[in-house]
From TrEMBL:
GO biological process: response to stress
Name of the protein: MarR family transcriptional regulator
Domain HTH marR-type residues, every copy: 1-144
Lineage, uppermost ranks: Bacteria, Bacillati, Bacillota, Bacilli, Lactobacillales
Superkingdom field: Bacteria
A molecular function (GO) term: DNA-binding transcription factor activity
Organism of this sequence: Paucilactobacillus suebicus DSM 5007 = KCTC 3549
Alphabetical list of InterPro entries matching this protein: HTH_MarR-typ, MarR/SlyA-like, WH-like_DNA-bd_sf, WH_DNA-bd_sf
A Pfam family assignment: MarR_2
C-alpha cells in the first residue's frame, strides 16, 4: 500500500509527464501541419478522407474521432476555408454532405504524410520497434482502462449532478 507521500510523488510524476512529455509530443506531431495552416487533427481528417474506400461525411468523422458534430464541423470549416476540402450534397439524400480533398488538399496531405513517416522512422531508429510497440500498447491500454472509465463517470455525474 502506498503512503500519502508515495501517492504525492506518483501524482507529481504524472503531472510532470503531462506538462513536458505529452505536451511536447503534441507539439512534435503538430509542427509539420502548422506550415500549411492546419492542425494535426485537421491533417488526420484529410488523411481519413483520402484513405476512405467510399464517401466520407461529417457524421462519420464525428463518430470516428469520438467528438461532437460541431467540433468536427469547426475543423472541416477551416479545411474548407483553406481550400483543402470540398463539400458536395449527396444526390440521393440532400441532408448528407460528402467531403472530398481538393487537388491542393491531396498535395498537402501527401507532404504531411511523408513528413510524418520520416518522423516515425526517426523514432524507430532511436527507440526500436519493440519499445515503440510496448509504448503504444500501454497507451491503448491506458485509454481503454482509465480514460474510458473516467468518461463514463463524468457522463454519469452529469446526469445525477454528483461526482463519485
Amino acid at each position: 500500500m502506498l503512503t500519502m507521500e508515495d501517492e504525492r510523488q506518483v501524482f507529481d510524476a504524472f503531472i510532470n509527464s503531462y506538462l513536458f512529455s505529452l505536451k511536447y509530443l503534441q507539439d512534435f506531431l503538430s509542427a509539420p501541419a502548422e506550415k500549411y495552416g492546419v492542425s494535426f487533427d485537421q491533417f488526420l481528417i484529410m488523411h481519413e478522407i483520402k484513405m476512405a474506400d467510399g464517401d466520407v461525411t461529417l457524421m462519420e468523422l464525428s463518430k470516428a474521432h469520438q467528438v461532437s458534430r460541431s467540433a468536427i464541423s469547426r475543423q472541416i470549416s477551416g479545411l474548407l476555408d483553406a481550400k483543402y476540402v470540398s463539400q458536395q450534397t449527396d444526390a440521393d439524400d440532400r441532408r448528407r454532405r460528402i467531403l472530398r480533398l481538393t487537388d491542393e488538399g491531396n498535395q498537402v496531405e501527401e507532404k504531411l504524410f511523408k513528413e510524418g513517416l520520416d518522423r516515425a522512422h526517426n523514432s524507430l531508429n532511436i527507440f526500436g520497434a519493440d519499445r515503440i510497440s510496448t509504448m503504444l500498447k500501454f497507451i491503448n491500454e491506458f485509454t481503454r482502462e482509465v480514460m474510458s472509465k473516467d468518461n463514463e463517470k463524468m457522463a454519469q455525474s452529469s446526469k445525477t449532478g454528483k461526482l463519485s
